[in-house]
Design a protein that fits this description.
Length: 149
């Protein structure tokens, strides 16, 4: 954060998006740690001197959904169920910590199969769509933030 602050003459926003890799099958028994770890991360950010100086908005971005299991390789199977478990927890945590919550999950759920080739990773079009969702939400809360083009 220090280097970014120096080069950018401050910080307007910190964007956090996690959860997709945490929903791999190998991490099933540790899923409950993900919101706890996000909470810890937010508190570490808020205790940083740069955060205290600039008071940037913290945005918690939900992970996108996973595709259906028949589209996924074994290590991702049932990941959609695990992500669905995290989404309300991330939203509640964002509200409790006075962070912006950006819901990619709901916005991409109905079309996700069309913006992924493997059920996990977004195509270029999917990445652009997700960036547009995030940018629009940030512009609603931070009108001075330049729009992505």
């Amino acid at each position: 954060m220090n280097e970014a602050s120096t080069q950018l003459s401050g910080l307007d926003a910190i964007i956090i998006m996690l959860g997709s890799n945490d929903c791999k099958a190998v991490f099933t028994d540790r899923l409950e740690r993900v919101p706890e770890n996000l909470h810890t991360l937010i508190h570490k950010i808020k205790s940083n001197a740069i955060y205290k100086q600039y008071q940037p908005t913290i945005a918690i971005v939900s992970p996108p959904p996973y595709g259906p299991d028949d589209m996924l390789i074994a290590k991702y199977r049932h990941g959609g169920e695990r992500i669905a478990t995290l989404i309300p927890q991330f939203k509640t945590l964002a509200e409790r910590e006075q962070c912006i919550y950006i819901n990619n999950y709901d916005r991409l759920k109905g079309i996700f199969e069309h913006v992924t080739t493997d059920g996990v990773h977004l195509t270029l079009e999917g990445q652009k769509l997700m960036a547009t969702i995030i940018n629009k939400a940030l512009n609603e809360f931070l009108p001075q933030t330049p729009s992505l083009r």
